[in-house]
Amino acid sequence: MTAHKLTAKVRAGGCASKLSPKILDRVLSGMPRFSNENVLVGFETSDDAGIYRISKDIALVQTVDFFTPVVDDPYTFGAIAAANALSDVYAMGGKPISALSILAWPADEDASILEQILRGGAEKLKEADCVILGGHSVNDPEVKFGYAVTGLVHPDKFKPNAGARVDDVLVLTKKIGTGIITTALKQGIAKLEHIDAAISSMLTLNRAAAEAMAEFDVHGLTDVTGFGLLGHAREMAIASGLTLEINSADVQFLEGAVDYVRAGALSGGLRNNRDFVSSCVEGTCQFDDLLYDPQTSGGLLISLPETDAARLLEKLPHAFRVGCVRERGVKPLLVL
Ligand code: CO
Ligand code: CO
Fold first, then answer.
1. 48 CA to centre of ligand 2 in angstroms
2. Distance of CA 129 to CAs 4, 54, 213, 300, Å?
3. What is the CA(64)–ligand 2 centre distance, in A?
């Protein structure tokens, strides 16, 4: 699968982690507020995407995500960047329709590598029936790539983080561990079969999961990305005013992830997440590093009634339960 390699200068190794959530929270809290009745979801609630109503039947879902290479193969990097950017539209219950690419590229770098990145992204967007309308590029010594994606959703039917209800079951649609495994890759200690499994997970669109979910009574929905499972569960818990119980024994990890935690393959992003989220967590577990691991193109975290969860799991054989929703307890998160 590695016909084309990114050159030494641009290969996986940049820092793909988000800005520290502590800094982001502080800065955003000081921003001016907009009052507009068509803003159905704004930046204040840390949701997956913004939602703007343009008619009584249609609202726009808008999101943007870009990062440094997480893998060495440029085509694969482009495709992962697309799957990752699309995910926040699915995580609002929306359908992606169009995308704009965002590119930072070294002036003296091989253009055939760039072509591979763009091709990987374009073919992934095609798989999602999402068109590319254009984009913007700048010269930068460090490669960065991603998309701004626009989707559509009915103004009454989008799925915010808020909305989880007591006694709901929490379902996750992808295994955890892409951050640990890509960090191990950068450290040169990851096994090929573990890298391939992580890549195939990151390449998988959340489209099928979102479509399977559509017929059920989903109360709360988000995707697990840069803030890790606990970071995104925290947002859902706080937005819903309840406690999310995570049963660590039920959380499935990508093969190799536990070994690389033991080997210390922890990213700066993981440490930032722990720093920010751990004060919201009661309880602990073995290998809890993985629960803070930043995910690239991670799965959907779905809060829905028990009977619906059972039927959804029949339709999505790779998905699994990770916990349940309780009345607000001591902290927003309870890890068992
Ligand atoms: Co998201
Ligand atoms: Co995002």
1. 6
2. 26, 22, 19, 19
3. 6
Which tens digit of pLDDT belongs to each residue from 157-179? Answer: 999 899 999 999 999 999 999 99
Q: From residue 173, how far is each of 22, 186, 252, 318 by CA, in Å?
A: 27, 26, 10, 6
Ligand nearest to the CA of 231: 1
> How many other CB atoms are found less than 10 A from the CB of residue 252?
17
- Give me ligand 1 centre to Cα 111, in Å: 31
CA of 307 to the centre of ligand 2 (A): 30
Considering every ligand atom shown, identify the ligand nearest to the alpha carbon of residue 87 and give its number: 1
Average predicted confidence (pLDDT) for the chain: 91
The residues annotated with a catalytic role in the active site are 15
pLDDT given for residue 18 in this prediction: 66
In the DSSP assignment, the letter for residue 206 is S
Closest Cα partner for 41 from 62, 67, 20?
62
Q: pLDDT digit string (tens) for 237-285?
A: 999 999 999 999 999 999 999 999 999 888 888 998 998 899 999 998 8
The structure tokens 């940049």 sit at 14
pTM of this structure = 0.90
222 closest CA partner among 203, 237, 243: 237
176 in Cβ contact with 258 (< 8 Å)? no
